[in-house]
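Example 9 (inverse folding). The structure is encoded as follows.
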């Protein structure tokens, strides 16, 4: 019951996702909520539907690359990391109320070589913000570039004061 094919990905319902994870021996799912296209009550309902279908709600990520300044919808919703952190404090609290065992992750910004002020300030505005204290972790999406021979190019040279974090959740 592979959810992808050469024709492209197919939509997964909570039931088909639970079946896929059981049959593929997937250890866990990180559920990614989308604050740009749904509200909190809709997100909670979706997580409850996945739980009812047999998926464990253990890890929840609050958005996807909300630091991205190239997207007008992201910029309108989150003009800076502090606004994102403030809005996500309510989401974190509510998700933990409905799913007490869930660990909730805020979106961190990976290091980049192209230097954009918004992205350079994101981690401090989000991860060091007191309103973020109830979150359990931060997710960082690391994209490794490849050369013409498909060899990974090292991305570990960094000049910022934040530690590079690749692990999503402790334990």
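The amino acid assigned to each position is listed next.
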């Amino acid at each position: 019951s592979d959810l992808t094919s050469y024709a492209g990905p197919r939509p997964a319902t909570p039931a088909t996702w639970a079946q896929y994870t059981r049959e593929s021996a997937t250890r866990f799912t990180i559920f990614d909520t989308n604050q740009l296209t749904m509200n909190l009550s809709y997100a909670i309902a979706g997580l409850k539907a996945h739980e009812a279908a047999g998926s464990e709600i253990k890890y929840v990520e609050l958005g996807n690359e909300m630091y991205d300044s190239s997207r007008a919808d992201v910029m309108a919703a989150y003009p800076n990391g502090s606004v994102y952190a403030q809005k996500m404090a309510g989401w974190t609290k509510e998700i933990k109320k409905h799913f007490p065992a869930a660990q909730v992750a805020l979106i961190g910004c990976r290091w980049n070589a192209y230097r954009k002020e918004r992205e350079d300030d994101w981690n401090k505005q989000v991860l060091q913000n007191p309103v973020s204290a109830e979150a359990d972790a931060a997710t960082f999406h690391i994209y490794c570039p490849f050369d013409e021979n498909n060899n990974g190019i090292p991305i570990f040279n960094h000049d910022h004061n934040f530690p590079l974090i690749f692990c999503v959740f402790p334990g």
